[in-house]
Design goal:
This protein is of the alpha+beta class. It has helices at 87-101, 108-127, 133-139; strands at residues 2-8, 21-28, 32-39, 49-53, 57-62, 67-71, 75-78, 131-132. It has three helices and eight strands, in the order βββββββααβα.
C-alpha cells in the first residue's frame, strides 16, 4: 500500500551515484508491516537473509545457509540449504522443461509486482517520505539506464 525509506552513500563514493545502503518499511493490507534493509560493500559481512517474526516464533532463512525456527515449535533446521545452489541454471532447466511439456511458466505478474515493490521503497528513500503505491503508479515514470561501461 505504501512505503517509507531512508539510506545513502557512505562506503562506495568513488564512482557513480548509487546509494550503498537502504532501509524501507512497507505497509500491506491488514496493517501488516514488513521492513527491508540492505548494505553493499560491507567488509566482513556477506549474507542474504529473510527473518520472519511471528507471535509464536521466528524463522531465520539464510540464502544458501542455515534455516531454522525458534519459538513455541522450534525446528533445528539445516546448516546449509541446497535450494539456492545454482538457481540460474535450475530456472533455465525448469523453463525449458515447461515448454517441452506444455506447462508454460508465466510469472510475469509476480516479477513485475516484486520489481515495483523495490522501486516503491527506493522512491520513498530517495524522497525521504511515505510514498503510496497509487502515487508511484500514477507518476508513470520511465526508467532508462545506460549499462555501457
Amino acid at each position: 500500500m505504501k512505503a517509507f525509506g531512508t539510506g545513502g552513500r557512505k562506503a562506495r563514493v568513488d564512482v557513480g551515484d548509487a546509494w550503498d545502503h537502504f532501509l524501507a518499511i512497507y505497509w500491506y493490507p491488514g496493517d501488516v508491516k514488513i521492513d527491508f534493509s540492505s548494505g553493499q560493500f560491507l567488509k566482513g559481512f556477506s549474507d542474504l537473509c529473510v527473518r520472519l517474526y511471528g507471535s509464536r516464533g521466528t524463522v531465520d532463512s539464510h540464502y544458501g545457509g542455515a534455516i531454522r525456527i525458534t519459538g513455541d515449535n522450534p525446528w533445528a533446521g539445516v546448516e546449509r540449504d541446497p535450494t539456492h545452489q545454482d538457481p540460474v541454471a535450475r530456472n533455465a532447466k525448469d523453463f525449458e522443461k515447461g515448454i517441452r511439456e506444455g506447462n508454460f511458466l508465466n510469472n510475469a505478474e509476480e516479477s513485475a509486482t516484486s520489481t515495483l515493490t523495490g522501486i516503491l521503497g527506493r522512491t520513498a528513500a530517495y524522497e525521504g517520505r511515505v510514498v503510496t503505491w497509487e502515487e508511484m503508479m500514477a507518476k508513470n515514470e520511465r526508467f532508462e539506464i545506460d549499462v555501457r561501461v
